[in-house]
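Incident review: delayed structure delivery

Summary: a single-chain prediction request sat in the queue longer than the usual turnaround. Root cause was a stuck worker, restarted by the on-call engineer. No data loss occurred. The affected request and its eventual output are reproduced below so the record is complete for anyone auditing the incident later.

Affected input:
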Amino acid sequence: MRLVAWQRLRRGRLVGYADIEMPFGLRFFGCGVFQKQNGECWGTPPSRPQVRDGHLARRDCDGKVAYEPTAEWVTPRLRTAFSRRLVELVQAVDPDAFTVQLDLEAVREPPLQLPLGEAP
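Output delivered after worker restart:
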């Protein structure tokens, strides 16, 4: 996996957006990189706001727009490996992007995103 572009954009848990290229030639634009106040961080494939009939369909418990994935890994192992590698790539080019020193072994699996209308 190769980092093509990085844009730091601190907003809540969001650290910024990365464009990446996979070894098999697929590019993802706008992969999210996130960090909690406790230092936990993760990366995700691109996502989009949940929209139905041209209107935002859902907001989370804090009133923020809810997002849905545009792509997903088929196993938790692949999802975690992608997340870790994305965080590593960002840290290599912008070590000051993260507010807490990272332990890359502790990079967690990204949260599961459910399709519209499904509850955990």
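Verification: The two ends are 31 Å apart (CA to CA).
Action items: add queue-age alerting; document worker restart procedure.
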